[in-house]
Amino acid sequence: MYARISSDVEGSGLEVTRQLEDCRKLANSLGWSVAEEYVDNDMSAYSGKRRPAYERMLADLRDGERDAVIVYHVDRLTRRPIELEQFLEALDAAKVRQVRFVVGDTDLSTGDGLMVVRILAAMAANESATKSRRVKRKMEQNAAASLPHGGYVRAFSYAEDKVTVIESEAVVIRQFAERFLAGESLRSLAAWLEDNEVATVAGKPWRTTTLRAVLASGRIAGLREHQGVIVGPAVWPAIISEEQHRRIRALMQQKAVSGRRAPRRYALSGLLRCGKCGHPLYSAARQTTRRYVCVSGPDHGGCGRLTVVAAPVEELIAKAVLYRLDTSELADALAGRTAQDEALAEVTEQLAGDRAQLEELATAYADRAITMRANG
Ligand SMILES: [Zn+2]
Fold it and tell me: How far is the CA of 300 from the centre of ligand 1 (A)?
């Protein structure tokens, strides 16, 4: 098992303990015994500083001491595409075929799996290179507008003092708690919000993930939470009862455990765009055929009029990506050498956006795998 703490990418909110915990769970479910946990503390990853544990793991792989690797996500494993290639070479030389990721799991023994892991590594590297630039610009903007750091927004149904109840929103929460407990889906509740033009506190349309977080929160039951654990009654008034809160959590847990959703096996989910309306396409299988579809409704907002069979598209994209990866322009972009170039800066922003989207999906996936702790 390999884990790394760093400050380079968005996903790094993940402390090492959580990475290790989830990796151990995966090992457990695979029935693998863990020979060693390699951990690096690498706060400035992109600088190219040495990682002793990582190097030790590579050496052990090459020496045939290890026959499998588990990592949380490929962005924990490698910081630059060239490191990924070194890792893949080491695997090849040692004939190690067993590599698993907690998030973004792909089969490295197939061409498609290799393609996916290379794309993820390229995106992680790109994120590292552009992040410092974006953060700096954001801080300058905030300073110019006299805004505090970070974006504080109030919680739905409470005013900005975090204590006063906003009755018009509390009514919605009470009603939703009852409807959810009566069996209505989050998707249908989110659709109701959309139809009635009720926005989130950030002024955005509701997603089921946002709605789930609100309904599952101890906050609306007047409970103070710390790191996902209820620590006692809060100073603010409750909107729903503690008993309702417990039943909502239990119901969500039950749905998560029943696992109606399959693990993600669609490399391009959320990355492809509908040719008719421009919205991202998501995975949907029909019997044994893997497909990408334009999904209408609250979470997606597409037109629902486009469906494409996955395999040929993935093959086409694989070819296009490999072609692009082979250009000196991309090598420069990944190395951060073209930050001055306007056109390329725009493309790298887009890439960063797409990656954030990918990360969001991955996080949602991870959240299901680790019960509801992260929803608090
Ligand atoms: Zn569409």
Answer: 10
